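Build the 3D complex.
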Amino acid sequence: MNVQEMILTLQKFWGEQNCLILQPYDVEKGAGTMNPMTFLRSIGPEPWNVAYVEPSRRPSDGRYGENPNRLYQHHQFQVVMKPSPDNIQELYLKSLQELGIKPEEHDIRFVEDNWEAPTLAAWGLGWEVWLDGMEITQFTYFQQVGGLDASPVSVEITYGIERLASYIQDKENVYDLEWVNGFTYGDVFLQNEYEQSKYAFEVADPKMLFDLFATYEKEAGRALKENLVIPSYDYVLKCSHVFNLLDAQGAISVTERAGYISRVRNLARGCAKQYYHIREELGFPMLKVKEDTNHE
Amino acid sequence: MSNRTLLLEIGLEEMPARFVTNAMNQLKQRVEKWFESHRLSYSKVEAYSTPRRLAVVVDGLVEKQEDMEEEAKGPSKKIAIDDAGEWSKAAQGFARGQGATVNDLYFKELKGEEYVFLKKHTSGEAVQSLLPELKEVILSIPFPKNMKWGTNDLRFVRPVKWIVALFGEEVVPFDIAGIHTNRVTYGHRFLGSKVEVKEADHYVQTLLKEFVIVDPLERKKAIRTQIERMAEEENWSIFIDEDLLEEVNNLVEYPTALYGSFDERFLTVPDDVLITSMREHQRYFPVKNGAGELLPYFVTVRNGDHRHLENVQKGNEKVLRARLADSEFFYQEDLRKNFASLFDRLEAIVYHEELGSVADKVRRVKDLAVKLADKAGATEVEKQQTERAARLSKVDLVTHMVNEFPELEGRMGEEYALKAGEHVNVAQAIREHYLPKQSGDPLPQSSISAYVAVADKLDTLVTSFGIGNIPTGSQDPHGLRRQTAGILQIFLSEAWSFDLFTCIEEAIDLAAERDLLKRSKQEIIRDLTDFVKLRYKSILQDQGIRYDVVDAILKTQLGRVTIVVRKGKFLMEQLSTPSFKNDVEAFSRVTNIAKKAEDKKAMVDKGLFQEKQEKELQTLAEEKQDKLLTLLNESRIEEAYDELKSLEPAIHDYFDHVMVMADDPKVKQNRLSQMVLVAKTITSFADFQTIVFHS
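Done.
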């Protein structure tokens, strides 16, 4: 199964489970969790089921396209369901079967792995899912998001597309993966990997990045004061990405690190709180969506 | 039928492996306690667990609670009988409240006063009606971390999926988080299916058919047997780490061990790296040959049966290949750097907000380590090596490998130092200066390692105390207790005769010079003395010294670790000599009576002596005091004790002829002062009074 088929299969499967199939968000981010469709929507009582692919940037994992496993940018297939359904583990295992993985022919395990995103003031409990010893999915019940207690609780399932594909296609090197017949992963992303790595490690100007951080931070605060949560949150994401670039360059000392993280966290908390208020003032409109609505 | 079996099983989404065993034991204990408090007898409770379930099977549980006879106490007779001699309202109320009538009341005397009493009979209830309370027992299981899920308000370790509660064949009704009890349990996720448990007795067998071994000990045995058989067949040596086995056991319901291999080229990476990578990331058991050399194989345990093992093997090999390729990359990257020059990067790593960078700490450790080497009489070469080792001791913290595997700190430092051409003593000390990391660990094997190890720990200790980070109760985040015990153990094994407290003072001075401490030297030393004393206790007891002897010597000077321990051992030997009891009695007479002195600092006035025994004891005590101290300082324990013992006849003679508590207050005070003086000599050896003799 090529990568494109995998994505289509997962989209179809989760669509059938009443998840909205959305598109990636257009601001750089380190993980699908940071997409406002997860971060903001998991706040408050309104039900929410969604699935999407998220290209996720981790500058310090960049390897100039030379490492067979590590990438500046990888793809997550993200599923969020609020409240978490009782049969979520079974649904997940079924999705693996759709991808052609027969559980009884492998060793699939749920191994404790608790998730924490300090920049988002978010944490949850759950597992990493092992397929024959390989971590293919992060499975998390959110307990806090933006410093707010999750109620009801959202469950987040994050498939590592490249990991899973390298298993399904039995490839040693991520660049050899077949994206679609005739196109490899390398055809699509190798140049991106090289250039982004080179930029992140060697070319990016720390002074400019520090300035950008300060600018974005300020703008995030300004937008929030105007009660504009989503634009404010866009700048929080930008702060986070700029921070990751600085971190990749080793431009932030250990002492300063905690300070930058807490600055981003404070902004994220502010957005979370404000988002809740705005939804509350609107009377949590999504509560009125009938539970049996099928998004297909 | 008078007894039945009770089954309670809580089905969960996979619990964290590290919680499972304790949760199972807690469930068992809490169920037993519940039976006891409800007067329910049973023959035995067996507890079971897998990652997805916690269960107890209770054999021979009675059908009915035992009846209870109690005596209830009411008001006093004065209040119970009114002026007319009739039962008062209070008495009537008491009887009614107990479900009885005044005809049941009788009087009984209690501490000189009469009260009304009545006998109360409570019939035992049917167990069936009590069992739903087990819900609370389940909810009371403590977990280190709980969570919420869905729309439930309950916090529990992981979402509850099903509950089986059977008393014999009957379902015990209750519900948790919307899950009602039932007789339906679930087998292995992929090999088993949903199944009814007909009777509580059938539990273990029913699940075995569904590919679940519910008894964790059975599972563990199966894993061990499979691995041992594999080792035998392949002629391998597979070390089964107990912690790893425990974890693996709690990750599977139906274990099957299998092995895979990796490319031999990875064997150029240090063994510890390969082993750590296999164990920490993948929970594999490493494989060695008979000579103890690592082989390019690994053993893993699958949650399932033998079918399609080749898929599992292939998948695991693929994962490990990527892991080891990473490790190899990190190792080679690290080797490309100049190891010693990485020191500069320690400047940017914060050791502690108030105590500066790791580089700052290393500079203090270096100064202190050289001082220790000096005291221990090290040669110039040794001192240079100590200085070098201290300087490089933390450099590996900035390597890729330690970043990836923090537990390899020290070990990687040694490896990289050797590759960089550092002296083998220096490299060894880099690894060993962390020792002992926990109790039972080996101690540093060379004296150079020992200097750096003690300097590092002393600095941690005094700087923590110096900024007020003092362990309390179970709070000891920096492991200061363990480190202090390590310091004492090293002093002992190196047989250092210099004073620990002098070293502590020097460590304080080094930190104070840099203006790091918030508390005064006196305060730090005062707190540290108590702290060190408590560590001594366990060290001495580990040496087989009895608790009362430990108390006796801990009241004396504690700086010279070897002397303290030797004294303890000496006194333990003395305990088996018949005369020792008499010695102790003589010494105790002196120390006991000395306590009565009001002014403990008053000088002895020889002019007030009336008996010759007073003068004799005085002369002898003055003579022995200095001698004793000198001998103790030279660690000549036996001779010191002989000196003390030579006071004994004079002490006896003294008490035979001298009345300390004389009528004349001046004489009395003078004699007490004399006792204080002699007592001081005695207690410079030990506080003999605390030693217990069993008749």
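Residues 40 and 384 of chain B are 72 Å apart (CA to CA).
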